[in-house]
Amino acid sequence: MPLARRAAAALLLTLATTPAGARGPYDDVDPFIGTGGEGHTFPGAVAPFGMVQVSPDTDTRCQIRACYGHAAGYRHDDPTIQGFSQTHFSGAGHSDLGDFLLMPVAGDTVPLEPGDPAEPGAGYRSRFSHAAETARPGYYAVTLADTGVRAELTAGTRVGVHRYRFPAGKAAHVVLDLRSSLYDYPGKILWSSLRVRADGTITGARETRGWAPARKLFFAIRADAPLAGHAFENREAAVPYKGFQGPGRGKADVAQLQGRALVARLDFGRLSRPLELKVAISSVDEDAAVANLASEPGDFDAVARETRAAWERALGVLDVEAPVPMRRMVATALYHSMIAPSVFSDADGRYRGTDDQVHRADGFTFHSTFSLWDTFRAEHPLLLLVQPERRNADFVRSLLASRRDSPFGILPVWQFHGRETWTMIGYHAVPVIADAWLKGVRGFDAREALDAMVASADYPDYGGIGEYRTLGYVPIDREPEAASKTVEYAYDDWTIARMAHALGDDAVARRFDRRAGNWRNSFDAKTGFLRARRADGSFREPFDPTAINYGSDYTEGNAWQYSWFVPHDQAAMFAQLGGDAAAVAKLDAMFDYDNSKLDYSHAEDIAGLIGQYIHGNEPSHHVAYLYVHAGQPWRTQERLAQIVASQYRATPDGLSGNDDLGQMSAWLVFTALGFYPVAPGSNEYVIGRPFVRRAALTLRDGQRFVVAADGLSERNRYVGRVTLNGRALDRLYLRHEEIAAGGELRFTMQATPNRTLGTAADKRPFSTSVAAPRR
């Protein structure tokens, strides 16, 4: 049996008739999915798009590249918890954050060093068991085995709330460690401060250098029990302390302290009830953090109830009927897609911008944490369907505000906490903005947006754009990853042209329509691969399409993946290969490639391989749908079954690669529904095949779009017929307006391929070179 068929059979074994039950989408979410393997998700508490992400950190001792596996602070296979910090990425391929770590300690001695996981009791770190751990959207709890403390976490939009239940009769303490950080290499903490205010509120700040330079963050902590005592220490110059710090020792008389290695002991005596700590953060100053505390009143239970209600509303937009594992995977994927971009402006609208100055968001909520190289593909298109127009407009207004604040005058590349990291390639804020406008999102200045898009595309000092504008491609002898940059710039340029056309700016539209064809300048028709060229026009030699080396011709991939990146004109790219049959043969060769003699262990982002298809990284994500463009949609249906069966599971290691701020998850949501946005900006979705029996999607304007799959089973894995609102559909793409209007997309599944549906040239998805008025 071919691999695709075996994988499809394995997947569809789960499609036995299992009753959906009374549980709602909220109950189906499992935040532990992705916390093992390479998923890099965290299990802690966060509100939808929340500014605070309170979660356990199991190990922060890693340095530089060794931090990769702990990018979210938590790994499911670690045996100990170091503490609970307030900020985390969900699924990033890079480490940072982990700000302001808190750890409850019970008893008379209080270690101020975390200790070694291999030496139980050597520090404030504690062992734990997954059997004593619970997670659901907006809530996390664990029992710390070494101290017997039951720790619970919840979060509002700008506050995190910790609740610690200490063993009876034991003194309650909390360690606050400002040294702890993800990506914790020497010298990361540039400065930090601590102080106790007159009302007992603990405030402070730190400035860090890491993935983002000179990042400033402030905090305020307020307990619901009086502070019985405290000690602040600066251990910057001291030999690492291996003993225990008792409550009677240390600098208890110091009300405030500054330095690069601050740690605090907070004493609360013997308590007859759980201790609650409310924590707020701000990029502005300590007083703003205090104000954020006041902006979300209520105790732990009140905040937890409000956040649960927010998640139930957010997740309730998608109601799925499917077997339990598939329901759990899809609900969790939707949950992961709604963690970022995260709120970053304070309750009063202020935030610290790209220029390190304080600004105010006037009439919108400023968001940050934009992993744009990943999320322009499916994450942002999904949010355009399931989030209110106001939220999507806020995303765009945040990007435009960052451009205004930027010393370089361009849109963000990979931004978090208002800081630019310059990570990855392309100017992919551009398709996010264009797709939003073309799909009807308003509430931002379209002319300003187009000007910002053009400014980013024309900025000569970024990523070889100067040479790209002159030569029509990025030369490899002047800029690394040149082949990837050429095709990604060309796609972004096409979306600029699309928006310019919509705004009636013919001059900009014509210029960027021409630039959108620049992918041809790096495509080698003789080998059938995208290749890097030198400034003199020659292709770089020697050429190995399987080679993956960071900083070489391609970005986190090789010629096999990147040669398919012409989402706006797949028909023209297929013509370069020799036509549809040649394209299908090459697609098959990619999926069926024998990797047994290849070693990609040096490339940490390369995960989830099916031949040379790499689902664990984004450049491959649209590729399985390209059989539809080539007139063989049943091959897409086979490949999608192969991918879903092998790359997703309802287990901690259930993501084959980094979730990348929701992109891996958004791919699954779309694919489970039966369609995918291959070319954001085209206002079309390519129809694949469904993986759920029924799904009801409540759209941003309240319309409901229902997907039904009649006869879906292990045997019936092919699409035999498709109807839209009761009328037969002879094409395998959907227009955005058809989904936005609401209605029903119904699939009739069968055991054998339908080799005529959607195969005619005029029934295929959008390609620029053959675009014609759609009927």
List keywords for this structure.
single chain; 775 residues; alpha+beta; Beta-galactosidase, Chain A, domain 5; GH92 mannosidase fold; 2 domains; nine-stranded antiparallel β-sheet; six-stranded mixed β-sheet; 38 strands; 22% strand; disordered N terminus; Glycoside hydrolase family 92 protein
What is the typical, i.e. mean, pLDDT?
93
| Helix segment tally | 20
Q: Would you state the CATH class of the largest domain?
A: Alpha Beta
Oligomer: single chain
How would you briefly describe this protein structure?
Residues 289-750 form the Glycosyl hydrolase family domain. The protein is 26% helix and 22% strand.
Structure characterization notes:
There is one protein chain. The protein has 775 residues and is an alpha+beta fold. It folds into two domains: 287 residues, Beta-galactosidase, Chain A, domain 5 (Distorted Sandwich); 425 residues, 2-Layer Sandwich (GH92 mannosidase fold). It is built from 20 helices and 38 strands. The protein has a nine-stranded antiparallel sheet. Strands 19-33-34-38-35-36 form a six-stranded mixed sheet. A four-stranded antiparallel sheet has the order 5-11-17-15, with no helix packed on it. The longest helix has 22 residues. The radius of gyration is 26 Å and the shape is globular. The N terminus is likely disordered.
